[in-house]
Every structure is written in C-alpha cells, then in structure tokens.
Amino acid sequence: MSLGSLLAQARKDAGLSLEQLAARTNIRMTVLQEIERDNFKNCGGETYARGHIRNISVILGVDPLLFLSLYEQEQSAISKSIQELLVENNVMRKSENSHKVSWKILIVISLTSLAIVAVAQIIISNRSDSKVSIAQPKPSKSVVATLSPSESTSSSASPTASNATTTVKTVEVKISATRAKSWLFVSDSAGRTLFSGQLALGNSKTFNAEAQINIRVGNAGGVDLVVNGKNLGAIGSNGQVVSVSYGVNS
Which domain does 56 fall in, by range? Predict the structure, then answer.
C-alpha cells in the first residue's frame, strides 16, 4: 500500500471524515484529498508536506515516524536538481523563457570540433608510422617457468575446500496481532524496508534477513513476537510504541 492509501485507511479506522480531519488539522480538505491520492504538489514543498504528515499522524494516533519514513521512500528528492527544489519551496521562480542558442553558433562549434578531431588523428597516425620504421630489437629467449611438485600441489585447490559450502545464518521474526491491530515498520541491517503498514487483528507476518531485523511496533501490547523459534510474547503495553532489533543469535 502507498502512503496515501495508508493515510486514508488510518483516517477511516479512526472514524473521521475528510471534513472532520480538515477541521482538526487546519489543512484544506482539497489538500487532504490530494495527499490520500499520493499527490503532494500543492503542499507548498517537501517541508510543508512533512509537516502535514506529522500533523495528520498525531490526530490519527499513529507514530509520525512510520508515515514520514514511507514518505522519504516514495517522494525522495534526491533525483531533483537544486533549481527544482528551490522552485518547489518558493525560494526562486521558474524561468519562463529558456535561453535560445543560435543555430549558426551550433554549426560553428560542430565544424571546429570536427577539425580538431581530424588534426588529432593525423598527428597520431604520423607517430604510429614513425614507430613502425624503427628497427625492433631481437626478442630475448623465452623463459618457461616450471612448478615444483610442492608448488603445483599448493596452487590447486583441495577437493575439500572446493566442495565446501558456506552456510549463511539468517534471523527470522514472526509478528502476530493476537490481541489488537498494530502499525509496523520492519527493515533489515542495510536499511531496506521489509514492511510498512498495518497488521490487522488475527493476522501474522514472518520476516527473514541475513544479519539483523529492525522493528518498530505502534501497539506493542497487541502483538506477539517469535524470534528464531523463541516465543517472546508481547514486548510492551497497549498503545506503546516500541523499537527493537534482533540478530542471528537472538
């Protein structure tokens, strides 16, 4: 599910209409509608968009970090240029007229470039011809290296080493909403998101990673955890937000 659909679902779970949410957050209803459709262009920039998400999360009783983390993944501004960011945050205006380059200038530049390439090729070819005319020295006697039996044996991999298989240890975490629904944010040791959303009552999810699993639970008292086959039960009280990490030896 996208960030907009998660916000819409959280609003419905809280029993609020768009009009009620707009009144509590002081955000225009039209902007809220666009946010739930994953359109953040009319928020006034990324700073204001994050502020809207944080404000909405507080009213809906959800940890803002869950939604803000998902916003960073979906609406990352890394690929945007500095000029686009300045325009988006109203620091500068978008240029109405682009600079036009005369076609005559382009032709002159192209011809100049071709001339430079041609001269360079002539110089390189002349140097190559001069090197070929120089008498080459007689080749020296080739030396054939021979390996002693001990060196030959050590250089070849032993059958045991070549056939050995490496067992990669992984960590496994199962999360079950046994008593109440809860928001979850799960990532691995590299920061990759494994899950971000709501775990409904009665449902469960299992996650696997090579080194470590990081979990943020929005309702720690409503869920039970089983880590590497060990039943840990609840890791907090009802409504408590808890962040935990588990490794292969947990």
Answer: 3-88
Nearby residues of 62 by Cβ (< 8 Å), 6 or more positions away: 10, 183, 218
* Sheet of 230-233, strand order: 204-209, 171-176, 224-227, 230-233
Residue 162 lies in a domain: no
For residue 12, being part of any structural domain is answered with: yes
User: By CB neighbour count within 10 A (0-12 exposed, 13-18 middle, 19+ buried), where does 250 fall?
Assistant: middle
Tokens of 3: 């960030």
Domain boundary among 88, 121, 149: 88
Residue 88: what pLDDT? 55
Counted domains in the chain: 2
- Residue-level length of the chain: 250
For residue 142 the two structure tokens come to 């080739």
Last residue of a domain, one of 88, 115, 149: 88
pTM of the predicted protein model: 0.41
**Among the listed residues 10, 14, 15, 13, the one whose alpha carbon sits nearest the alpha carbon of residue 35:** 10
Domain assignment present for 95: no
212-244 pLDDT tens trace? 999 999 999 999 999 999 999 999 999 898 999
> SS3 breakdown of the chain: % helix, strand, coil, rounded to 5?
45, 20, 40
Q: b or e along 93-130 (b: 16 or more beta carbons within 10 Å of the residue's beta carbon)?
A: eeeeeeeeeeeeeeeeeeeeeeeeeeeeeeeeeeeeee
